[in-house]
Amino acid sequence: MVTRGFFGLKRPQPPRPIPPGQYWEQGFPVLTAGVTPRIDLKDWRFSISRDDQELATWTWDQMKALPQKDIKVDIHCVTKWSMLDSEWRGVAVDTFFEVAGIDPPEDYVMAYCYGGYTTNLPMEDLRDGKGFVAWEFNGDALEPQHGGPARLLVPHLYFWKSAKWIRGLRLMDGDAPGFWEQAGYHMRGDPLKEERYWGD
Amino acid sequence: MATPTKIAWQTATIERIVTETPSVKSFTFRLPEWRPFRAGQHFDVRLTALDGYRAQRSYSAASEPERAGLIELTIERMEGGEVSPYFHDVAMPGDRVELRGPIGGPFTWAGGMGGPLLLLGGGSGVVPLMSMLRHRAGSAPEIPAVLVHSARSLDEVIYRDELLRMQNANPTFKLIVTLTRSRPEGWTGPARRVDAAIVKDALTKAGTPRHVYCCGSDGFVENAANLLVAAGVDAATIRTERFGPTGA
Predict the structure, then answer these.
(1) How far is A181 from A187, CA to CA, in rounded Å?
(2) CA-based Rg of chain A, rounded to a whole angstrom?
(3) What is the mean pLDDT of each run of 10 residues along chain A (200 residues)?
(4) Which DSSP category does B182 fall into?
(5) Contacts of B229 in chain A (CB under 8 A)
(6) What is the mean pLDDT of chain A?
(7) CA–CA min distance B182, chain A (Å)
(8) Residue of chain A with shortest Cα separation from B103
(9) Could you say which of B2, B43, B162, B220 would form a disulfide bridge with B101 (CB–CB 3.0 to 4.6 Å)?
(10) Rounded CA gap, B121 and B220, in Å?
(11) Could you say which DSSP state residue A181 is in?
């Protein structure tokens, strides 16, 4: 439906196409549902878990000792902004599984976080260099408001899947909705298919 | 988990436009497929140009869920934006706009959740809080509630008259307005950014809050939420909603 009197295109246009319904944002907006958790690096842990059992756990220093990657990606938030060419440094999710000697056969994982946030992901979307635990953004330590010390980074899905203040990945049999997914947001969240909400 | 239902686009008609402040207007839409929502939820709007170009934005509902068939979205005009200037400069009653919702779960309140309720809004961050207050006034006015409303100047206090009427009509609701940039002659209220003293005043008026909702810019929310935690408020009771530096 054409909107009477709407012409659009008043914003600076991105240098290349972005997914449908998105606009180009040159800042880095913050969207969080609660108080920003503050985590001391000496207490920080990242785990791969099943049920309530931690199968493998890394301290901050142990994580930083793993092979690191520089990642340059576009970010797409379900609230419609897209950020181009953001630069991150982190460890691929594959690396954690390899180092721990854990086969990731399960279909889905639940990312869980300091502060209580959760989000569900198909293992497929984290495998083969598609998902990371990242702690550096555009050359600086990731700020607490943006998920620091470290957040999950899954750039090909809407950004709520890139869980802030990541604490670990819980292996699941079958899929289950996380925090936003229970509240009407899509179970997978592919920006190219505009999977924002239930039924998209 | 509620049963996933499709959140489909529908064509809503603008029924009424109210100027709230020099840069904020409220738009009442009639929805062909209205369904009950929760105070605090938002709706997406989608505008389409003749050449097919589209822009989408999210706006919080300001109206209460009891107003069946209608929703009111309060929209601040963002310079350099493309959706909010359309609403402010072009849209008229009778215009039709694509819209879908309600959307969002955590930042919602219903009378059944009880209180006391402590609300903190910075600028247009007050919009979803107004939905909660209107819902409360109509269905649970006995629940103690305090709104801390931070605005740059008195002219920019969105819903000012209605909030003052609400306070006069119902002593269990208390309004604290703080003006951060300019204050009129004779202003006796606080004239500064939300600080520990304002938070303390709000907590004294509200009692220990069972639910805290804090909405505004990231800077406003981060500051207010940290002050609340420092004042002893349980972080688990604080829900936040933040909007980015640009937006719409």
Answers:
(1) 6
(2) 17
(3) 84 86 85 88 97 96 98 94 96 97 88 96 96 97 95 97 97 94 94 94
(4) -
(5) 35
(6) 93
(7) 27
(8) A184
(9) B43
(10) 8
(11) G
3-class SS string, B199-213: HHHHHHHHCCCCEEE
Cis peptide, bond prior to residue B102, ω within 30 of zero = yes
Give the number of other CB atoms < 10 A from CB of residue A150: 28
Tokens of B163: 């909030």
Q: Which residue of A lies nearest to B219 if distances are taken between CA atoms?
A: A30
Q: What is the ipTM of this complex?
A: 0.83
Averaged pLDDT of chain B: 94
Its pTM stands at 0.88
Alpha-carbon distance of A159 to A153, in angstroms, equals 8
pLDDT, tens digit, for every residue of A40-62?
Answer: 999 999 999 999 899 999 999 99
The end-to-end CA distance of chain A, in Å, is 19
The structure tokens 């690191």 sit at A68
In this structure, which amino acid lies at residue A43? D
Q: Which helix (H) or strand (E) holds A60?
A: helix A60-64
Within 136-195 of A, beta carbons closer than 8 Å to B belong to 145, 177, 179-180, 182-184
The single residue listed with the structure tokens 């640009």 is B246
Structure tokens at B98: 């694509």
How far apart, in Å, are the Cα atoms of A83 and each of A155, A195, B174, B207? 11, 18, 41, 42
> How far is B89 from B102, CA to CA, in rounded Å?
25
CB A175 within 8 Å of CB A168: no
Q: Is A31 an 8 Å CB contact of chain B?
A: yes
